[in-house]
Amino acid sequence: MSHDPRVSDLPPHLSTSIIPPPLGQSSVNVLLLLHGLGDTKDSFTNLAKQMSLPETTCIIIQAPTPLPFDLGGFHWGDDITFNQSQGTMDYDTGFDKASRILKEDIVENILIRKCGYKHRNILFFGYGQGGIAAIAAALAVKTELGGLVSIGGPLSSSSFDKLDSGVKNRTPLIVLGGSSSTLITQSALSDLKKAFQTVEYTKWPRSGDGMPRNRDEMLPIMKFFARRLQSKSGVPEGSVEIG
After folding, report:
1. Mean pLDDT of the chain
2. Within 13 Å of residue 234, how many CA atoms lie on the same side as its CB?
3. Alpha-carbon gap, residue 57 to 55, rounded angstroms
4. For the purposes of burial, counting CB atoms within 10 Å of the CB of 20, is it exposed (0-12), middle (13-18) or buried (19 or more)?
5. C-alpha to C-alpha distance for 29 and 224, rounded to whole angstroms
6. DSSP strand pairing (88-89 vs 82-83)
7. Closest to 15 (Cα-Cα) out of 63, 66, 54, 71
8. Euclidean distance between the first and the last CA atom of the chain, given in angstroms as a whole number
9. Residue 63: Cβ within 10 Å count
10. How far apart are CA 118 and CA 62, in angstroms?
11. DSSP class per residue in 145-173
């Protein structure tokens, strides 16, 4: 591996934060965290610190486009549209720009070519619209990644339209959402299973797709990380990974 990711490695047009592995640990994995619609990178920077994932560098990426009308916050969509009947912003407005930035600028050019990581050591964590962007990016990469966590983020209509019939992405996905007032409906799950070979679903016994509120709600995510994060602890120098 050439070197651990540095902010100076990342595209200057993006606002990013990097949380290194716990003190004294090498960086074997990279977790890319994508916030929800109208948020900034700050909340997920705090989340990355709290998770303190072993041997994992967390890169928190702020969505590239600010919301209009001085609303504050940023979004991942190609466009911004408003639902007049509900008085809300539409979340599914195309993700070509976001998936191109994440796939080409971050994953391929920086993490793989410059820093020397393998696809298997790169994971995504997205919330809401950030989850949709993460799914779009993983499908664009095509090669199996370490894993993908999407909280309240389904498959976008544009990603669905690009699916290759009969060919499923091998990146393991865990998707989480509420038991009501959720975007993770049975139809949404069916679409995700058409796109990904392995889909794990956790339905929280509450309304809405907000972030985990307690240890029980966070536990499925941490178990997923425990299965998918690679480790070199106790591995002799010079050993070759098999599989």
Report:
1. 91
2. 2
3. 7
4. middle
5. 14
6. antiparallel
7. 63
8. 18
9. 27
10. 23
11. -SEEEEES----HHHHHT--TT--B-S-E
Residue with tokens 């975007």: 183
3-state secondary structure of 229: coil
Structure confidence by residue, pLDDT tens digits, 68-101? 877 789 999 988 776 666 656 677 888 999 999 9
- The pLDDT score that the predictor gives to residue 240 is 39
Q: Is the pLDDT of residue 122 over 60?
A: yes
C-alpha to C-alpha distance for 214 and 192, rounded to whole angstroms: 26
pLDDT, residue 239, reads 37
Amino acid 2 reads S
CB 71 within 8 A of CB 77: no
- Residues forming a β-bridge with 176: 151, 202
Of 163, 165, 174, which is closest to residue 139 (Cα–Cα)?
Answer: 163
Q: Point out which residues pair with 169 in neighbouring strands.
A: 196
Name the percent of the chain in helix, strand, coil, to the closest 5: 30, 25, 45
Q: Residue 46: what residue type?
A: N
Decide the pairing of beta strands 29-34 and 122-127: parallel
